[in-house]
Amino acid sequence: MAYRRSRWLKLLWLLCFPVACFGQTAGGGSSTASNPLTVYAPPCITHVKQYIAVNCQITPTGGAQPYTYAFTEGFPTGMSMSTGLGGGLINGIPTEITGVQATVTVTDVRGGTAATSFTITPAGLTGSGPCGSAICVTAAGYAIKTTEGYTITTSATVQMTATSYWSDNTSLDLTPTATWACTPTPDCGSISPNGLYSAGKSAATYHVMATFSGVTDDGGSGVAVTAATIQTHTKENDRVANSGMVMREVLQLGSGIPLSVLQKAECVIVVPSTLKIASGVGVSYGRGVMTCRGEPEFQGPWGAPSMIALGGGGFGFQVGGQATDFVFLLMNDRAATSILKSKIKLGATASAAGGPIGRESTAATDLFLRAQILSYSRARGLFAGVSLEGSTLRPDKRANRKLYGKDVSAKAIVLEGEVSPPSSALELLSVLNAKSPSNRSTMVASQPKNPG
Question: What is the DSSP code (8-state) at residue 296?
Fold first, then answer.
């Protein structure tokens, strides 16, 4: 009886022994078919950048923790990986952009193993950003607006942002890690390690630069920042500043001036808050500014404004007895030079038409572009093209003398660049240069220029 029991126990042991063994790997590790040990390269190693700190953790799955790490081959110069129990952290600061292959092997507590191979190629600062450099500096605004116009004082600050562009087609905010400077020192003011710029006392254009590992934005010139002292509070400066606000608001309207039309204009006249001063007759009077594109053939940026006077009468000028803003687009150089020389009469000296509004396809048709001057008005919140035939436009010599502090002709201001724009013109010029930076008029090539 005891012999039979012994035989049954031996048979039972022989049947159970394979079951106990089949659950383990052939290598004696702890992985099972239902929970294998696996390891992959972490996604963060595909975004490694030269001179930027790396912190990538290899994270295996399955098997039995804790894990032990080892590697063969190597990592880019300046990088390494922690090994042994609880390792697997790839860190450091790569100093080269040469690709290096590594093989990482993970072993779990029961002896199971898994391996992965990958190549790390740090991206370099060789990409070209929108500023033409590997690092571009931008800011929300280069001037601070006050009730007196546009000004930067020692108490005013502007937050600069440094964005880097890399060879892997990615970008990175380097603002907190870049080295900041402004020139010329010490007149330019100061800039904090986080790119917070405080202007100096004198009015001038300075340059703010961000440098990262020897690479400087714009190839070393930095971004220009215009610092303006408080402008003398005069009616002329108010008109210039108000003209800038009118232009910005008009271009923000859904029913405003089509950009396709503005981009074909060679000069712009803005007359804010024109008042009708005689009932029944319809005589109106206003003061505003005129600015043109600089350089030969009106191809450059918008320049210093000349003061302009608007006057006249007629049915088209009946604006309901309230203040009205007017905008005129001068579509060719003949209209511009005529106004700068002397008084012109709309519809007689220069052909004029109410300009198109909104985003209609008709905005680019010959129906509108045949006119030398396109005119617009805004009253009671409504904006529209308006006929102003019979009205006159002329340079305001007295206002120019008060604005610039000396006798200077409208032609010398607008076409010859004899004076710099006043700080009160920053709004107007920044809006026009942003919305219409280049002259896209087909008439530039097809019509002869009349320099006057």
Answer: G
CA-CA distance, 206 to 183, in Å (whole number)?
A: 6
**Who's near 375: CB < 8 A, 6+ residues apart?**
326, 327, 328, 329, 346, 352, 353, 354, 355, 385, 386, 387, 388
Answer with the one of 171, 192, 227 that is the final residue of a domain.
Answer: 227
Q: Quote the distance between the C-alpha of residue 46 and its chain's center.
A: 28
Query: Using an 8 Å Cβ cutoff, are 166 and 127 in contact?
Result: yes
Look at the chain and report how many structural domains it folds into.
Answer: 3
Q: 359 or 82: whose pLDDT is higher?
A: 82
CA–CA separation, 148 vs 134, rounded Å?
38
* The amino acid at 317: F
Residue 26 lies in a domain: no
**pLDDT score at 224:** 73
Output the six-digit token pair for 324.
Answer: 């009205």
Q: How many CA atoms lie within 13 A of 249 on its CB side?
A: 17
In angstroms, what CA-CA distances link 41 with 57, 118, 298, 362? 9, 7, 57, 58
Whether 279 contacts 320, CB under 8 Å: no
Encoding tokens for residue 214? 């020897």
Domain holding 111: CATH number? 2.60.40.10
Model confidence pLDDT, tens digit, residues 325-362? 889 999 888 888 888 888 888 876 667 777 787 755 44
Paired tokens of 340: 């700068």
All residues at 6 or more sequence positions from 107 whose CB lies less than 8 Å from its CB, including other chains = 29, 67, 68, 70, 113
Least confident window among 125-134, 150-159, 240-249, 329-338 = 150-159
Q: What single string gives the DSSP state of each residue in 232-244?
A: P--HHHHHHHHHH
Domain stop point among 120, 143, 168: 120
Whether this prediction's pTM lies above 0.70 is answered by no
Question: Which residues have CB under 8 Å from 186's CB, separation 6+?
Answer: 200
Query: pLDDT tens digits for 174-190?
Result: 999 999 998 887 777 88
User: Does 113 map to a domain?
Assistant: yes
**Helix ranges (DSSP H) in 342-406:** 366-369, 397-404
Sheet of strand 89-92, all strands in order from the earlier edge strand to the far edge: 54-57, 89-92, 79-81
Q: Which of 55, 58, 62 is nearest to 71 (CA)?
A: 58
**Residue 280 is part of which domain span?**
235-446
- Report yes or no on 296 lying in a domain: yes
